[in-house]
């Protein structure tokens, strides 16, 4: 049986060409650009209310340094999706949220981010993940169900609860290895941004 934080019957396979890694302060501009790319409907779904592009960008500029962890999904080296893991009162509870660039939804980025968020939460001692969305946000409801969450409709929102399995020695080892790759990839991206390749004519 695979060692996964998700329910036993949940299978998440990362599509080819998608890289998921933790984001750092060096990724701040990319995160801001992603949130600025969200159209009004996408911002409404993400923040569960009307939010201007400027407010979304202001939120994004602080998201990397906020308490918790944030992960990004890249295609062709460009940040196309973000998954956030934030504490929710106790170490056993945490909240997750997602933002995926228009034109890149329905391609498995959200599921890949969700699996990585669940692994990080599990290894940090979290036993339940919470995801909230509007009832009309069909993509987010489908993602929550794909991750194996239980959906509860209450008032003006859908509350999804995902129970995680306890960490194992293998899951902790795997996160350590993934973390090394994350740091290396982030450093490479930062160097590429600081020293762009010059084309000699």
UniProtKB/TrEMBL annotation:
MF terms in GO: acyltransferase activity, transferring groups other than amino-acyl groups
PROSITE patterns tied to this protein: GNAT
This protein's record includes keyword Cell inner membrane: no
Keywords linked to the UniProt accession: Transferase
Pfam families (alphabetical): Acetyltransf_1
Keyword Transferase part of the UniProt annotation: yes
Segments forming domain N-acetyltransferase: 18-168
CDD domains with a match to the protein in the record: NAT_SF
Name of the protein in its database record: N-acetyltransferase
């Amino acid at each position: 049986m695979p060692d996964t934080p998700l329910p036993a019957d949940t299978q998440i396979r990362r599509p080819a060409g998608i890289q998921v890694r933790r984001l750092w302060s060096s990724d701040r501009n990319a995160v801001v650009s992603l949130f600025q790319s969200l159209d009004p409907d996408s911002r409404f779904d993400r923040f569960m209310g009307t939010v201007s592009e400027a407010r979304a960008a202001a939120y994004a500029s602080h998201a990397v340094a906020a308490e918790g962890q944030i992960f990004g999904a890249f295609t062709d080296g460009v940040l196309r999706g973000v998954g956030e893991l934030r504490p929710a009162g106790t170490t056993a509870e945490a909240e997750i949220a997602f933002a995926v660039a228009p034109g890149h939804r329905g391609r498995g980025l959200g599921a890949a981010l969700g699996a990585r968020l669940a692994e990080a939460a599990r290894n940090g001692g979290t036993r339940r993940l919470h995801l909230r969305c509007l009832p009309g946000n069909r993509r987010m409801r489908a993602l929550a169900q794909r991750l194996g969450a239980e959906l509860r409709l209450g008032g003006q929102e859908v509350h999804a609860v995902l129970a995680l399995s306890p960490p194992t020695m293998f899951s902790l080892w795997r996160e350590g290895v993934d973390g090394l790759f994350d740091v290396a990839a982030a450093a490479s991206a930062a160097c590429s941004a600081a020293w762009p390749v010059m084309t000699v004519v």
